[in-house]
Amino acid sequence: MHCLVTGASGYLGRALLPVLAERGCRLSAQYCRGAVSAPGDAQLSLQRRDFSAGQADLDLEGVDAVFHLAGIAHQRADAQAYQHVNVDASLALAQRARAAGVTRFVFISSVKALAAQRDAQGALLPVVAASNPYAQSKALAEQGLQNVCRDSGMQLFIVRPALVYSKEASGHLRWLRRWAAWHLPAPPSGGGRSMIALDDLVRVLALLVDASLSVPVPALMTVTDEQIYSTRRLHAAICAAMEREPWLPSPPAFVWRSLCRLWDALRGEKSGCTWERMTADECYRSSGLESLDFQPSLSFEASLGVPVHGT
């Protein structure tokens, strides 16, 4: 099978390419910046395009499956950027793929799309009217892709991963690693989130190249490891892996709230954002994976080689 991977130089793309190569796939890759190297002895056709500049004119001749990973995520961007890259570029690529005879289009969405905002009639709000433009852009892209693929020969797979983790993960986990390295107190208790190991998510995607795969159309897949992680649980696992212990006990919640408000002010964010990220509940269940016979192989602790140490 000939697979085109967009966002090939990114966090997920770099992990996916070698797994597809191991399955014997012929590979093409789109990237915008950074570097992309062919995995092992595989041949890799590279296409440098910038979706933010409207460059969706990829060469799709002979491509059987598109894995569309490219997009804006986990960074600050304005609503128009999310609309332009996550929605408009995705739909333009799908339309080109449909016209080129691509048979499978795999779109990496997010569990956050499940909580996208709607109006009183149930219609999705525009990206510019939503409080979370990233989540809204993913939901709008999902809706648009289903319209593009309807009544066509191109099967649509929408994959909604929870927070993806690995030893190289950035964002929230990067700060927790620094926090543990400095022997700072354990975060406040409470809250929980769903997650999925990068290796397990890549396994799910690789299963989608199976020529005999039979799933509903469109295929909507929510991917988690079926566990709930509080910030304190994540911190405990990182401390164990780094062989670090906090030098002070965790302060009361009101102290944490004050520190979070100060941090929000220093970063120019809305007051309460950091506290919400640390203590909010964002829990999901896996779904749509029955035909893949997939079971997650890792928990966060297992990925670090440490035993479970509290929640």
Explain briefly what this protein structure is.
35% of the residues lie in helices and 15% in strands.
Task: State the strand order across the main sheet.
Answer: 3-2-1-4-5-6-10
* Total DSSP helices: 9
Integer average pLDDT: 90
Largest sheet: 7 strands, parallel
- Nearest-angstrom radius of gyration? 20 Å
Write down the CATH class of the largest domain. Answer: Alpha Beta
- What's the domain count? 2
Described by the principal axes of the CA atoms, the overall outline is globular
Question: For the terminal residues, how far apart are their CA atoms?
Answer: 43 Å
Structural class: alpha/beta
Give start-end ranges of low-pLDDT stretches.
none
Helical residue percent? 25-40%
User: What CATH architecture of the largest domain would you give?
Assistant: 3-Layer(aba) Sandwich
CATH topological fold name of the largest domain:
Rossmann fold
The number of E-state strands comes to: 11
Portion in strands: 15-25%
Q: Please, what is the CATH homologous superfamily of the largest domain?
A: NAD(P)-binding Rossmann-like Domain
Order of helices and strands: EHEEEHEHEEHEEHEHHHEH
Describe this structure in words.
The chain has 311 residues and is α/β, with parallel strands linked by helices. The chain folds into 2 domains: 2-161, Rossmann fold, CATH 3.40.50; 165-196 and 225-284 and 296-311. The protein contains 9 helices and 11 strands. The strands form 3 sheets. The protein has a 7-stranded parallel beta sheet with strand order 3-2-1-4-5-6-10, sandwiched between helices. It has a two-stranded parallel ribbon with strand order 7-9. β1 (2-6), α1 (11-22) and β2 form a beta-alpha-beta unit. The longest helix is centred in the N-terminal third of the chain and has 22 residues, at 79-100. The chain is globular and about 60 Å long. The termini are far apart. The mean pLDDT is 90.
